[in-house]
Amino acid sequence: MKIIFYFCLLLCPLLIRAQDYHVSLIPDSLLRDADAVLRSEELHVIIKNTGKAIINRKFAFTILNENGEEFAYYYNQYDKFHSISDISGRMLDKEGKLLKSIKKRDIADVAVNDGESMVTDARSKRFAFYNKIYPYTVEFEDEVTYDGTFDLPEWLPVMAEKLSVQKSLFIVETPSDYQLRYKAFNYTGKPVISGNGKTQIYTWTLSNQKAILEEPLQPIWHEVTPAVFIAPTEFELGGYKGTMSTWNDFGKFIYQLYTGRDALPENVKQDVHRLTGGLSSREEKVRALYAYMQSNTRYVGIQLGIGGWQPFEAKYVAEKKYGDCKALSNYMVSLLKEAGIEAKWVLIRAGEGDKGLMEDFPSNQFSHVIACVPGPSDTLWLECTDQTVSPGYMGNFTGNRKALLITEKGGVVVKTPNYSTKDNVAIRKVDAVIDENGNLQLDAHTQFSGIQQDLQHELLNASKEKRDKFLNASISLPTYTVNKNEYNETRGKIPVVKEYLQISAPNYASVSGKRMFILPNLFNRSEKLPNDRPRQFDIEIKYAYKDIDTLVFRIPPGYIPEAMPKDISVSNKFGNYSMRYTVKDNTISLTRIHEHYASTYPASDYNELVKFFDTMYRSDRTRIVLLKKE
Amino acid sequence: MKPLKILCLAILLPWIQAPLQAQTKVSNKFPKITISDFNPISPAIDSSSAAVILADVGSSEFEGNNNGDLTLVFHTHERILIKNRSAFDEATVKVSLYTGDATFEERLDEFEATTYNLENGKIVETPLPKSAIFKEKYNRYYSNLKFTLPNIREGCIIDYKYSVKSPSRKNNIRGWNFQGQYPRLWSEYKVTIPPIYNYAIREQGYLHFAVDTSGTVFKSYSIIDPGDATNSAETISLTGNAKWAIWAMKDVPAFKRENYLASSRNFISAVKFQLHSIHYSDTHVVQVMKDWNTTAEDLLKDEDFGLCLSEGNGWLESDVARLTGAGSNMEKAKRIYAFVRDNFTCIDDDNRELSEPLKKTFQGKKGNVTDINMLLAAMLIKAGYEAIPVMLSTKSNGRATETGALLNEYNYTVIRTRVDEKYYLLDASVSRLGFGQLPADCYNSTGRLVHIPPFLIKMSADSLSEDKSSSLFVVNDDKEGVVGTYSSRLGTYESLDLRNQIAKTKKEEFIKQAVKGYSSELEITNYELDSLLALDEPVMVKHDLKIKFEDEIVYFNPIISGAWKKNPFVSATRSYPVEMPYKINETYVLNMEIPKGYKVDELPKSIRVKLNETEGLFEYLILSSGGTIQFRCRLVLEKATFSPQDYQTLRDFFTQVVKKEAEQIVFKKL
Question: Where are the beta strands (DSSP E) in A64-209?
Fold first, then answer.
């Protein structure tokens, strides 16, 4: 009785009784499609005050097979604002009997390489158990102390596909007068809230969640699995204080970190005036200064301490000619300011397919910074870490999403440009000659625009060696050589790249006796969508485009088509597709048009989409058989 | 680039005595930067060079230290023209230093770095202060020093130098590559070795040295012995003729990576070093590098290698007894092999020494490749088998010298055992490998038996053959129409790949994907994979099929699976040999009843193509008679390695294969 009382007093779920991890205790439904099972998890966030939080996490995975091994490792990061203590762990056999425990000296302490930054102060603790006898269970526990509460952990118990969850708890403990904000996805009901006058405790629970399999074109992960995000109202970070109950407040805090770091050295000021003095329009000036920034800087990531959040001064970038996204954007804003043009910093979530910030939940959701020159109708967005991109073009990386514009009056939610089927176009014209041995010679002229030009833009800026290597490996012809390649770019908000390729492909057409077989659709073949189980999630098509391919083949004299494929034309809610053939004298022409819309569709539309792709798949691979006249 | 000749000498001692003008002063390669440096002219530069190494000079020498020993001092000086932004990464430099132990800590010194830009016809210098070096403690043993040069723009020149002092690396003079990703106008390396050390030196590559000379110079090294509780500190002076050597290359073209090249390390021009002996005095000589006999004897006594095999290893007793119960010699050996392979995780496949005592590996269930295979050897020996370690250098590690025992050139250990008078090579560090199989990466010319006598065993890709045979029988069925059965016995490595894929996905997923790979005119049913778990056997793929015969004209490719659809030799030209992982021997047979209601309108032509008379064969033989079609297609490559001169022939050969294997039989309705 006394002991139970003691537990109640502490209200401390950390001290769980030694749990039984016998695999027979896993319900069968959780084994289906699973590589691992999260047996139990307690993610316990104790917010002491605006400046300090303690995160204790205890979790156990049963590893069912080799593919589940990614969950058998312990990994956590720390840096100047986060420290890790009390790492413990053990490995159990399938019956739950102890095989091994972590020894402190076996925990590796390794610098973190994020793949982008040159220097960061982030480090990691790592540990791995090794076992090839499945199933087995690993259990870990650690504690991380947060200095500052700008960022708080999220709860995403189903952290990957093919992982089922037997039980997971998310417990957030705050002082009773603390204003915790939270946002849940795919969680039915509300958190259980309890309090004792001093502290308030919020608990979210997930039990017996079956494993999920990823599907093509599915929404982002936290929209299809249970997730809870939490955020402070008042917080501290590296000695700065702020509030974030509104985006306006969040922006005010960021402004505090960014402002007053715009002084430029005299020589750069002179450059600004020399470059813009003779120009009249605002847009011309922005272009000139953007080109100046691009040719005078490069990306070097240095994230140390508060430097992870606050940009280097413009002066520093001017001297070193490098910086990270914050520093380069701040430098760009400073250059524009010197030319009398008002520009702003914009915090954004970068990455292909990301939708940007959750507007109804102000919190730190950002990974990147860009610059923006606001205008009534001609707002220009400037990516400052890319030394070749056109001014105003965002592409897939930062386009079509909500972001936060930082002003002296606070943050404002803005939307970056969306690129439609009109913008993302590839128009290809191919002139090809096939000789009687089946050898193919062709000239291909293609005009790519918008997101469709991203690859060609990269090729244009790559070294000749890389470009040649790529071109000679990436085209789906059996044996071929790209004899010539030329690229021309027209910069703009919607950049355009023109590509010319001269290709020879020996034995492209297969000649058997009096027949010759040709696969005429050379460059643009759509793939199939898998359809082997019922669709679970909505279909999200994030990227709209239009392709027009026209190919004209001159066939060797004496040959006539034995059979020509039928023309095809399909139009539906996903887009439209047509393939038309014409035969005239000794030429065969085909025109392929495919327009693909970006939208969201319910899961029930999936079969129709699969059918559409199947139709295109077959049509794109249709053969033409030529027959030699006797 | 034309390959000149393979220079692969192992120059062993004694050193060539230098001519009288000994201390050859190599001209200073770092004069003041002038405008012409921004536009260098050299046959090595082509339009695709994103950067040009104007000069790349290094040296290794020794100095006395305070620990009663010598410290290795490495100097490097680089001057690079950055022509294109894709080479901006050259401006960020990382130097990894050993910092695990205060006494032997490595230190970076004599640092200087400057960026030069040409602005309005004038050269503008931007120096980088030493304070701009970031230090990152990577882990317990190593730290990374990183610096990035300022003011980098297309067309700038960066110039930096530093030295690294290594008190603990005396046995390991750094090698030097004269060739790399970018062209080098001048690449030079100099070593000066104190009289007490003798090094074995190996030069490799396809290119000629512009300078290749050596000599002696009088040197004096002052070493302070710190002393201990009983002896006071004292200064020792080591004097005598130090040996020096300089190598340099001029106008070195960039090294371009090509497919089917086992390791670029075998072809990049380089010099490499290994300590041969230490002459403390005339009477006290420590032979570090020995002949293979002595080396093998030492390795067998070395606790980091072979000693564990001659120890009792009583702790293995019960497990070995459990595994060897009943059965033939072969069954028992296979059980031991499977036990080690299936229970121990390999966490490092690039190490020729044990990382810990065998017993620890056994308990921790993990180890490097040598730990795991030595454990296998120990268990085999315990069970009464012969088991001899075979030391080798994998393809990714480059080829080892066969003559001298240069141990640091080796990175892998496998085991040779004997069962019923037959030898087998075993590797238990790789999951899903069969008994008697090794990863293709091991077949890098030779392996060394660590045994007395220490024979060299041939392990050439040319001795390894990937054999595959497939057959398809098609008949008319009254009810079902045109139906058939297909079966294919895969080669060793295709079987391994398939097993690895299935371990990653699932058998059902794999089959779904495999079925999708067939032409849409075929309906595939009853897809089965035999011997999936019998790892010593090749995988058998089997399925039934139904062929759609409806249209007026039906085109049918007799090779329904496994055809070469793309030429494996993409590039139009080749500078280095083609090193395929193994030889090829594929046979495909079709036996087909002509579908009812159809006649053969046209058959592809039969052909037989030879590759250089004896090195390869492609046969495509087809005939139709008596209502059936007989077809046989065979592809044989009798060797795996081809010279660059043979490249065009080889590429043309495969063009033929791809072309022929795409051909169709044409059936017409009667």
Answer: 73-78, 82-92, 98-101, 108-111, 117-120, 123-128, 136-147, 163-175, 181-185, 192-195, 199-209
